């Protein structure tokens, strides 16, 4: 299971990197989203996926999954959600102001 | 256990939340903000005093009373408390400058709440003792900085801020990856606990990879070579009060994290990690100052100087002796004060002349002598002329470098100091001396001397830091000896069962 997850994370990172290197604002934002998904899954996988048991430590639990990475991912997902929403608005405003979503035209020269 | 530690985080956070309710009432916002900023400064001084008098000079707070490796722990040692003082000081000064310079209508768009949320994130990043909590406070700080850096919403700001935001989100993603690796290897996120486990595991292979990955993450936030390309353009956009806050504080949070991590956790293989840091420091200094020499724009020159001076701080860490680290800490203190003052000077001259371009200004000193001479003192301090604070901090670094026989980096740092002096004199000659060019008639400032009032304390501080170099340097040396001995930190955090 871990091997499958690692391969999947690698695919997410690859596609995300490709999207970031394109020159359209919306694609870059999508690439950021994919990369962050990859990072969150990596956080889950690196700590061991554990057994099929829940992350609860009862009185007589035989086995339990590690609850900490799940808490970490929850935090990271919420943060990322907020930042991505802000980034979408910022990208839209940039497009409105400059009438282009092509980053080659948004490059800007050094002498202005 | 001491609840005082959380005060520098709670104060700005609560105030920022309250100010959201008063966005339309600027006067109430200003009064509340000013009072809180002053209170924050006193609280941070009191915190430093308590830390200084405590037995190990480290105090900790376990949040929710969870014992140390399991819960989040806040740690205030002497280094963290010094940084909190500096953050509160710059926060207060830039706030008073913002009262006078930022357009009234714009102040209604949640300027003050985000200003204080930024301070929350900065203070939290200084005080936390947990890696994931550091990530969270970084995000609090960065989200506020995203809002403040597009504050005003000009076309230029939108264009450059988009890049700034994307780069910072990318570095946060790398941070999550680094946290994942560390958690996979050590099974802990508490900095002290990680330090213990890395010492047991012997630092090689994967742990070195993680060390360099964290260096990349914090280097992106702290503008180290070759990751500084976003900084000059981004910091050119926002209003001067915000640019001064960013130039003083934001990159230094990254540098603080580098110093914390490489003096506490990754200390077992210095011939690899610290040599990498030393090489990066030299390149950062050199390329940053070359950018400053090539520019002809007040604010851009200052932005490039941020980069070159970040190199000095990291150089102190790379040499890795108590004297060098003390020099780096002294340098951080000096740099935060002086750099913010210079950005505020840029704001004042822009208000008077309506431009940042050096070629379009001239002879300002005839009409505004105070402005000119105060800038002159600050510029000399930045370049490192005795008896100002810049000289003594560089002096300590260079002595430490010669003692360790790192002659090349010493040569680079002296050369960079010379080029710094050249570029600061370029500003002084073009802006303040020469033919008096016409001042902007549309200027909204009736009397520029009022704008100087927030800056005067910073100039007095740089003079004081230079004249009282001995006690300040002893204090820095105490901090350096404390952070170079990780067992202090580890015992204080983990022995509170």
Automatic annotation (TrEMBL), chain A:
Source organism's superkingdom? Bacteria
Q: Does the keyword Cytoplasm apply?
A: no
Designated name of the protein: Na(+) H(+) antiporter subunit C
NCBIfam families for this protein: PRK08600.1 (NF006372), PRK12660.1 (NF009303)
Query: What Pfam families does this protein map onto?
Result: Oxidored_q2
Cross-referenced InterPro entries, in alphabetical order?
CPA3_antiporter_subunitC, NUOK/Mnh_C1-like
How does this protein lie in the membrane? Answer: Multi-pass membrane protein
Automatic annotation (TrEMBL), chain B:
- Keyword Ribosomal protein (UniProt): no
Can you supply one Gene Ontology CC term for this chain's record? plasma membrane
- Superkingdom in the source lineage: Bacteria
UniProt-listed Pfam families = Proton_antipo_M
What are the transmembrane regions?
6-24, 31-52, 72-97, 109-128, 134-153, 165-186, 206-231, 243-266, 272-298, 310-332, 370-395, 407-428, 448-469
The UniProt entry's coiled-coil ranges are: none
Task: State where the protein is found.
Answer: Cell membrane; Membrane
Identify its membrane topology class: Multi-pass membrane protein
Q: Carries keyword Cell membrane?
A: yes
Instruction: Pinpoint the NADH:quinone oxidoreductase/Mrp antiporter transmembrane domain residues.
Output: 129-419
Which InterPro entries is this protein grouped with? Answer: CPA3_Na-H_Antiporter_D, NADH_UbQ_OxRdtase, ND/Mrp_TM
Q: Name one GO molecular function term.
A: NADH dehydrogenase (ubiquinone) activity
- Annotated keywords: Cell membrane, Membrane, Transmembrane, Transmembrane helix
GO biological process terms on file: ATP synthesis coupled electron transport
Chief place where the protein resides = membrane
Similarity comment: family membership: Belongs to the CPA3 antiporters (TC 2.A.63) subunit D family.
For this protein, the record's NCBIfam families field holds: PRK07691.1, PRK12663.1
Protein name as annotated: Na(+) H(+) antiporter subunit D
Biological source species:
Candidatus Syntrophocurvum alkaliphilum
């Amino acid at each position: 299971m871990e091997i499958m997850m690692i391969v999947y994370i690698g695919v997410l990172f690859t596609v995300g990197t490709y999207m970031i290197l394109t020159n359209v604002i919306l694609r870059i934002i999508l690439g950021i989203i994919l990369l962050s998904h990859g990072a969150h899954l990596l956080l889950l996988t690196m700590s061991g996926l554990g057994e099929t048991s829940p992350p609860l430590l009862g009185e007589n639990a035989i086995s339990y999954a590690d609850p900490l990475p799940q808490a970490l991912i929850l935090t990271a997902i919420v943060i990322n959600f907020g930042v991505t929403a802000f980034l979408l608005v910022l990208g839209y405003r940039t497009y409105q102001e400059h009438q282009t979503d092509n980053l080659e035209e948004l490059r800007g020269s050094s002498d202005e | 256990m001491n609840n005082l530690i959380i005060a520098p985080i709670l104060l700005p956070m609560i105030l920022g939340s309250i100010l959201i309710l008063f966005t339309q009432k600027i006067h109430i916002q200003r009064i509340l903000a000013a009072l809180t900023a002053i209170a924050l400064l006193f609280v941070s001084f009191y915190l430093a005093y308590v830390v200084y008098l405590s037995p190990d000079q480290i105090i900790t707070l376990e949040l929710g009373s969870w014992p140390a490796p399991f819960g989040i722990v806040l740690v205030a040692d002497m280094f963290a408390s010094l940084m909190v003082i500096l953050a509160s000081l710059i926060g207060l000064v830039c706030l008073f400058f913002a009262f006078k310079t930022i357009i009234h209508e714009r102040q209604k768009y949640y300027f003050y709440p985000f200003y204080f949320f930024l301070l929350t994130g900065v203070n939290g990043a200084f005080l936390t003792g947990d890696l994931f909590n550091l990530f969270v406070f970084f995000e609090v700080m960065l989200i506020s900085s995203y809002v403040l850096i597009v504050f005003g919403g000009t076309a230029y700001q939108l264009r450059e801020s988009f890049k700034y935001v994307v780069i910072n989100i990318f570095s946060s993603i790398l941070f999550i990856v680094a946290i994942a690796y560390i958690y996979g290897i050590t099974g802990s996120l508490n900095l002290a606990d990680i330090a213990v486990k890395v010492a047991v595991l012997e630092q090689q292979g994967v742990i070195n990879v993680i060390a360099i990955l964290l260096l990349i993450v914090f280097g992106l936030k702290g503008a180290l070579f070759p990751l500084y390309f976003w900084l000059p353009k981004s910091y050119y956009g926002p209003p001067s009060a915000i640019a001064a806050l960013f130039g003083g504080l934001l990159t230094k949070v990254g540098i603080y994290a580098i110093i914390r991590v490489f003096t506490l956790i990754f200390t077992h293989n210095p011939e690899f990690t610290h040599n990498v840091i030393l090489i990066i420091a030299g390149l950062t200094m050199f390329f940053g100052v070359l950018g400053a020499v090539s520019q002809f724009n007040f604010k851009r020159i200052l932005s490039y100087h941020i980069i070159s001076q970040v190199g000095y701080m990291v150089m102190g860490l790379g040499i890795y002796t108590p004297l060098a680290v003390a020099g780096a800490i002294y340098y951080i203190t000096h740099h935060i004060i002086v750099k913010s003052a210079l950005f505020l000077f840029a704001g004042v001259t822009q208000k008077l002349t309506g431009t940042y371009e050096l070629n379009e200004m001239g002879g300002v000193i005839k009409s505004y002598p105070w402005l000119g001479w105060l800038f002159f003192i600050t510029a000399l301090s930045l370049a490192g002329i005795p008896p100002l604070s810049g000289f003594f901090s560089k002096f300590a670094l260079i002595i430490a470098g010669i003692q360790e026989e790192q002659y090349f980096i010493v040569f680079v740092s002296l050369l960079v100091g010379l080029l710094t002096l050249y570029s600061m004199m370029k500003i002084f000659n073009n802006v303040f001396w020469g033919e008096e060019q016409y001042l902007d008639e549309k200027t909204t400032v009736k009397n520029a001397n009022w704008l100087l009032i927030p800056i005067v304390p910073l100039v007095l501080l740089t003079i004081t830091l230079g004249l009282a170099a001995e006690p300040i340097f002893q204090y820095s040396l105490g901090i350096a000896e404390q952070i170079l001995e990780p067992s202090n930190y580890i015992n204080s955090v983990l022995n509170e069962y």
